[in-house]
Amino acid sequence: MAQAYTPGLKVTPQVRWRARRVLPIAGEVLVSAGQTVAARDIVARTFMPGDVTPVNVAKLLSIPAADVPRCMLKPVGESVAAGEPLARSQGLFGLFRSEVKAPASGTIEAISPITGQVMLRGAPLVVQVRAYLSGTVVEVLPQEGVVVEADVALVQGIFGVGGEAYGPVRPVCDRPDQDLTEERLAPDLRGAVVIGGRRITQAAVRAAQQIGVAALVSGGIDDQDLREILGYDLGVAVTGNEALGLTLIITEGFGEIAMADRTFHLLRQHAGAEAAVNGATQIRAGVMRPEVVIPRGTAAAVVLGGAPTSGVLEPGVTVRVIREPYFGCLGTVVELPPEPRVLESESKARVVEVKLADGRRAVVPRANVELVES
Fold first, then answer.
1. 316 exposed, middle or buried (CB, 10 Å; 0-12, 13-18, 19+)?
2. Residue 236: exposure state from Cβ atoms within 10 A (0-12, 13-18, ≥19)
3. Residue-wise pLDDT tens for the chain (374 aa)?
4. Nearest-5° angle of CA 170, CA 176, CA 177?
5. Which domains are delineated in the chain?
């Protein structure tokens, strides 16, 4: 039987999924192996060094840099509050003294007799990592983090922006071909993962930001709308750190593309369930896809998330076309002709014949499809 290998994304009602949750620097793990955790539970914590505020005491007091240590009111290691006197000049016969006040709270980290600078180190910044999955800790990585495993319903998208978010699944469209507009958003959606249908409008994103929606999930978005929402053009780097106030996940692609029927109905079936979402996307080496993860309890499942899949493209599997003129269409592989064919561009490529959802048959290059894994 003819077969090939191609990248894929998962849309499945049940899969055993693993999330590796690690700190950016060494810290403290707060849970143990075998422990049951909720998605919002903090599983690891560390402290990043606070910001440094330089103060040019020599210049502010109009004294030589070598005199700065003698003018300091507190030594290295002492804390100081914003607005508190930090240094005072000797003056003339004890008169006409000048004073420098701390511009920020912190600890005196260094006093330089060479530059006349004083360094104030701000309070340490707490960095916490949440479990992300409601499941079981199956591995503890000492001073780094944990691996959490759970049986979940999983929907991976094509593109996303914004980081991790949590909330109940709240569908607002009755059909996958309905646009997600601002009229469909109400104040009671605050903190929810809102499920749309076709295109997310720019006005809907603005309304969701004002309401405090946790995430928006829909089939497509206009690239110009996305540019105006972000305020800049996205490059090819990893997304996920955008300061939007919400997470945005696109399941199909750019333009007016309806959400795939089975994706739409899978998400609607879990209305009211708590979900974890992540918009982080990377399309180059080390592919990351945005995802919606909904815990399913302890029923048996066999696929481990994060592990490489076989990616077998063969007759009978479901695929999505990712290039025009069938961009966004779902279908079933009918045949994989072994010999390269001449395309409309007059180039040669190995192709796949796909029966689309509407009954049409399309012949497209194998590089222009991706698996939709169930």
1. exposed
2. exposed
3. 355 544 567 888 999 999 999 999 999 999 999 999 999 999 999 999 999 999 999 999 999 999 999 999 999 999 999 999 999 988 665 566 889 999 999 999 999 999 999 999 999 999 999 999 999 999 999 999 999 999 999 999 988 999 999 999 999 999 999 999 999 999 999 999 999 999 999 999 999 999 999 999 999 999 899 999 998 887 666 888 888 999 999 998 888 888 988 899 999 999 999 999 999 988 766 678 899 999 985 333 434 344 344 567 788 888 888 777 877 677 888 988 888 888 777 788 888 899 987 888 988 888 888 777 65
4. 130
5. 52-121 (2.40.50), 158-289 (3.50.30), 312-373 (2.30.30.30)
Angle between helices 202-211 and 223-230 (to 10 degrees): 40
Sign of CA dihedral 148, 149, 152, 154: positive
Structure tokens at 136: 């079981």
- Asked if residue 250 lies in contact with residue 221, where contact means CB atoms within 8 angstroms, the answer is yes
Angstrom distance (rounded) from CA 289 to CA 219: 15
The first and second tokens of residue 116, run together, are 């006349």
Nearest to 129 by CA among 120, 118, 137, 121: 137
Strand partners, 31: none
Burial of 300 from C-beta contacts in 10 A (0-12 / 13-18 / 19+): exposed
Residues 6+ apart with CB under 8 A from 296: 13, 14, 150, 151, 152, 153
Greatest pairwise CA separation for the chain in angstroms: 99
* 324 token code pair: 């025009």
pTM: 0.76
Distance CA 369, CA 117 (A): 60
What DSSP string describes 184-238? G--GGGTT-EEE--SEEPHHHHHHHHHHT-SEEEEEEE-HHHHHHHHTS---SS-
Q: Give the Cα separation of 355 and 332 in Å (integer).
A: 5
Instruction: Extract long-range pairs of 34-37: CB within 8 Å, 24+ residues apart.
Output: 34/136, 34/137, 35/136, 35/137, 36/135, 36/136, 36/137, 37/131, 37/133, 37/134, 37/135, 37/136, 37/137, 37/148
